[in-house]
Each structure stands twice: as C-alpha cells, then as structure tokens.
Amino acid sequence: MRKVCAKLVPKVLTDDQKARRKACTDALKATPENDYRAAFDAWKTRWNRCVDAGGMYFESF
Q1: Which of 9, 13, 48, 59 has the fewest CB atoms within 10 Å, counting from its CB?
Q2: Over 50: is that where the pLDDT of 38 sits?
Q3: Highest taxon of the source (predicted)?
C-alpha cells in the first residue's frame, strides 16, 4: 500500500495556513490540563459502557 497521506500535506504552508496552525496551537495550549483529563475520563466511561453492551447501540449513557 502506498503512502498517499504524505502527498496530501503541503510541504510549504501559506501565511494563512501558518496563522491558522498557530491559532489552533495557542487555543489547545490555553486549555487547562484538567479539561483534557475530564474529557478523557468521560471517554473511557463511554468506552466501557460500549464494551459492556457488547458493542450494541444504546440511546443514553
């Protein structure tokens, strides 16, 4: 299988792309670690519920 993804990413970024990358990076760095931890813990809880349900669909969690 050929690596196609690398060809889709431009090697030279435009100024607009650089600005967007910096804005996203700044926003992520400004997010407190506790928020990431809480989101990850919530994801693990949902993951375990899915495993417990045998991967079946359910409405509420």
Answers
A1: 59
A2: yes
A3: Eukaryota
* pLDDT at position 2 over 70: no
Quick one: how far is CA 20 from the chain centroid? 17
> pTM for the whole thing?
0.52
28 and 21 Cβ atoms separated by less than 8 Å: no
**Range 34-59 burial, b when 16+ CB lie within 10 A, else e:** eeeeeeeeeeeeeeeeeeeeeeeeee
Among residues 31, 24, 61, the alpha carbon closest in space to that of 43 is found at 61
